[in-house]
Amino acid sequence: MFRLLTVLMILAGLSVPVAAQDAAAPPQDNAATEADVSEDDDDDEEQDEGGGDAAAVYEAAGKFDYGFSGIMARDNRTDLAPLTLASGQPVAGGEYTLKSGGFYRIAVNADGSQELALSGGDFFRAIWINEIVINDIEIRPMGVHSLEFDNAGTAVISFVAITPGRYALSIPGSSGETQQAVFTIQ
């Protein structure tokens, strides 16, 4: 008898959230006009006539409408000017200004004149890396500290800027301003 009561209490407790979800009304937009309300009433009558009981659909309305694919859609991606790794050449032509939440892609080109790397743990922790593509091989890392090129090649990094601040990717052991790329995330 005790087990039966326990099972009934558990089932009653589990059914409460389901009943609350079924009874919840969708959030109303304060800017709805009377015409919109009357159109909604007409739609309800048509559904009732068809005999089908349609479930309520709740849409998450965000600040931005990124479309079906969201922030990662190609339409939302910004291609940045490439970085260059070459002996005696500047890494970047200027500073990069990024917006937090923006989707970016940047190519890192090495000419093979010297074994060079780009290091910047702070920058890589301030972004979310979608992928790094090297010779048509896609890498989806959990974290990156640096990229090193032993030979000529290109690596393309696609990422979402997250944490606002000023960050640098620099050639390890160098001290010149031209031997780094500065990124400001707003």
UniProtKB/TrEMBL annotation:
The keyword Signal applies. The lineage of its organism: Bacteria, Pseudomonadati, Pseudomonadota, Alphaproteobacteria, Rhodobacterales. This is MSP domain-containing protein. It comes from the Bacteria. Residues 1-20 form the signal peptide. Residues 36-51 have a biased composition (Acidic residues). Residues 24-51 are annotated as: Disordered. Residues 24-35 have a biased composition (Low complexity). It comes from Paracoccus subflavus. Keywords: Signal.
